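Dear H.,

Thanks for agreeing to be a second pair of eyes. The structure we're designing against is below in token form, covering all 102 positions.
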């Protein structure tokens, strides 16, 4: 393993499909930040699990405990709400027009 700005570089699976990503950074920076600053850092998901994101290193970034809920509210909740609205619309339309004709 070598070092990168994000922590130790690993060759372990780092994608949702389990494909080996050579040189993928394992998110170890959070451990180092907590050792230096106290326990205020977490591994935050960039792509929410409800939207298909996985808790793997390639999808994690250091965030403070207070940043995580703000990130969720500003960047993750809007697409989740849009997808839920689209799903409801599709279900309603399908019930009203089962043959696909309007």
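And this is the sequence the design step returned. I haven't edited it by hand at all.
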């Amino acid at each position: 393993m070598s070092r990168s700005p994000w922590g130790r570089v690993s060759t372990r699976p780092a994608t949702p499909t389990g494909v080996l990503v050579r040189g993928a950074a394992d998110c170890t920076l959070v451990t180092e930040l907590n050792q230096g600053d106290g326990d205020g850092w977490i591994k935050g998901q960039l792509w929410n699990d409800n939207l298909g994101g996985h808790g793997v290193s390639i999808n994690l970034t250091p965030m403070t405990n207070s940043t995580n809920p703000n990130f969720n509210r500003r960047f993750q909740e809007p697409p989740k709400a849009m997808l839920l609205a689209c799903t409801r619309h599709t279900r309603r339309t399908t019930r009203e027009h089962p043959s696909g004709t309007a």
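Two observations from my side: The radius of gyration is 19 Å. DSSP finds two helices and five strands in the chain.

Warmly,
E.
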